[in-house]
Design goal:
Elements lengths: L17 E2 L2 E2 H11 L5 E5 L4 H6 L6 E5 L7 H14 L6 E4 L9 H9 L6 E6 L2 E9 L3 H4 L9 H6 L3 E4 L10 H11 L1
Parallel strand pairs: 3-4, 6-8
Antiparallel strand pairs: 1-2, 5-7, 6-7
């Protein structure tokens, strides 16, 4: 789970925004584990103990601090892939998600993990295109390990055939105060 962003457009750490009584970072990590994506690597910005505290007590997670977080999502993906390779843990598939899509449930992640894909990439489909959360088969790990900037896996998701799963719930991601207002409106 990529959660090392600085939430500059929102103005405060979106990772700690509460939804249904739970910080988004904890919710996303818990949902990944519930969906069967273990071990769950959670990439955080450095020196933010309150985010680590929000994850306390969750099993099957590994917390990574990305000292290069300012470089963008690509650095978090590289750190995740390096950690897996250094630990000699090469899963068959990798579920990639962020913590700022509060309407995602474990069942959505399970549908991505269970969908067959000839291309080795299965992604949520919303806003007319594929996006995260997404699942990448092992053949795409070298490309994920080479990502740069703030594009993350976007290039892979848009450059070739991708199996998609309709997931309108993924369309709401919390980047701005307006997004947070929309989430608040949905709760009422």
């Amino acid at each position: 789970m990529l959660a090392a962003g600085n939430s500059s457009r929102l103005g405060h750490p979106k990772q700690l925004v509460e939804y249904e009584g739970e910080p988004l970072i904890r919710r996303a990590a818990r949902l990944a584990v519930e969906a069967g994506a273990t071990p769950a690597l959670v990439v955080l910005p450095p020196g933010v103990p309150v985010m680590q505290q929000a994850l306390a007590g969750l099993s099957s997670i590994v917390v990574l601090e990305n000292v290069l977080a300012a470089e963008g999502m690509g650095s978090s993906l590289r750190l995740s892939m390096k950690t897996l390779l250094d630990a000699n843990v090469i899963p068959r598939r990798l579920l990639l998600l962020t913590c700022d899509q509060p309407l995602i449930e474990a069942r959505h992640l399970q549908s991505l993990l269970q969908a067959p894909s000839a291309s080795g990439i299965t992604a949520a489909f919303y806003h007319g295109r594929p996006g995260v959360p997404a699942v990448f088969d092992r053949q795409h790990f070298p490309a994920l390990a080479q990502t740069h900037g703030d594009q993350g896996a976007r290039t892979l998701l848009r450059s070739g055939p991708v199996t998609t799963v309709d997931m309108p719930e993924a369309a709401l991601d919390l980047d701005t105060p307006e997004d947070l207002s929309r989430l608040t409106d949905l709760r009422h």
